[in-house]
Amino acid sequence: MKSCQKCHLNFEITQEDRNYYEKIEVPEPTLCPRCRAQRRLAWRNERKLYVTQSGLSGKRIVSVISPDKAFKVYESEEWWSDQYKPLDYGREFDFKRPFFEQFSALLKDVPHMNLIGSNNENCGYCHLLANCKHCYMIVESSNNEDCLYGYWLQKCLAAVDTSYTHNSQYVYEVDNCYNCYNLKWSSDCTNSSDSYFLKNCNGVKNSFGCVNLQQKEYCIFNEQKTKEEYEAFISELDLESHEQLNHWKKAFEEFKLQFPQKYNHSLNAEDCTGDYIINSRHCQDCYHAHDAEFCKYGEHVWRGSRNNMDVSTAGRDAEWIYESINTGISSNNVQFAVQNWSCSDMRYSYGCFNSQNNFGCVGLKRNQYCILNKQYTKEEYETLVEKIIEHMKQTGEWGEFFDPQFSPFGYNETVAQEQYPLNKEEALEKGFTWSDYSPPPPNVERTIPAQKLPDHNKDIPDDVLNWAIECEVSQKPFKLIKEELNFYHEHKIPIPRQHPDLRHEKRIKSRNPNQLWDRTCDNCQKKLQSPYSPEKLDKVYCEACYLEKVY
């Protein structure tokens, strides 16, 4: 057991952990897993977008780095062009100064991409995106088309206000759903279609307000109906009415509490702990793991993630990644890194692509044997890296992730705020930074409070696209786009009254947190480790009891 130097709670380091640290030649961590994750996530802004100017062309661009920050930003195409050469910013290592101080200076000098994406078409307001078409405000997603306001979408079509959803079409306000079609206000469903308000359902279609059902059709609040009875019920609904929709949302929330939940969300998970784990084995304390093995303290470990520890987003055949965030696509042996794609044998690197054998570098593309972006021979590189590591041991920096004080983002702009919310005073006290930047309001003909919108969609005028709607909770103004309004009309859904950021926040908060608690099965009293906190009202069953009750 060790005591965390940040929160002072004890945490365990097993012999298996020590074997891992010895293999990749790093010291044991000084912070507990939770504080390590919080520190990493303070380096990742996913959804806060700002209008700024390219530091190269002066072009108006959208960026995750706000214009008040002391960082250069280039449009992605400019960054990848020959106009930007990362080695132009190289400098000698100064053994009289701490490493992080020198790295921070390099981080501010080297240009950053405004948004990260690859092979996308008409997706100008999206970040961390690949192989998508005609999408708007979706993040960390790939192979999607016509999707709006989404997070972790894979192979989806026309998914709106949706998160952690795969291979689904025409879905709205759903989370953690697979192979679904025309599903609305639902979560944790597979192979389900043409339904409203489902939870934990598999193979369910033409149903309303159902929980824990398998291979059913024409059910209303878990009661079997005839086709005629169901269609009569649906025909009398008017979910285009904001008031009626809220009524059914509340009724479903109350109805769900009657049913047990499995102690975690896992399927084909061998020797795994955590939550939202599918087709994985030997993953401990991992959250959102797909096709992963031998990972520990990870979130978003997916598609061939192996032998990775203390990672946030490591996938697509990423191996031996440690204390890193957003590092993958065949990356191997990378430690203490932010956003390294297709890289190997890298330490303390930020925003590097297709590179290997580098230390303390920023913004590399297809480079090798560099330190602080300065080119060396193989022999020079290996000798100097050893000396720098010894220097970092003396300064107490070796084995620590980047100090959040050097991050391009304020704590409140990052994923850390989603998972570990703090107010400004708390964040500053804990050594994070805070952003007070406020973007200018949208340029619109008029602003209308959400409460003054007509209740029914048919009464919303066509020129609502020229308005700003004032969020009913945060009072933050937001606009609709044409594709979004068309979706609401086509699917007979009321236009939203809340800001997209708040809608995203509510979906994320509806999921279990990345944390485990000791509790007991509410049926057989078996001891469990579950992401359902003891304070939650849900009935939580062990797997055996859940399968007995549900199946």
Number of separate strands: 33
Range of strand content: 25-35%
How far the N terminus sits from the C terminus, by CA atoms, comes to 42 Å
Briefly note the structural class of the backbone.
alpha/beta
Give the biggest sheet: 9 strands, parallel
Task: Write down the overall mean pLDDT.
Answer: 95
Rounded to an integer, what's the Rg over CA atoms?
25 Å
Describe the structure.
The chain is globular. The chain contains 12 helices and 33 strands. It has a 9-stranded parallel beta sheet with strand order 7-8-9-10-11-12-13-14-15, with helices on one face. A 9-stranded mixed beta sheet has the order 19-20-21-22-23-24-25-26-27, with helices on one face. Strands 28-29-30 form a 3-stranded mixed beta sheet, with no helix packed on it. The chain is of the alpha/beta class and 551 residues long.
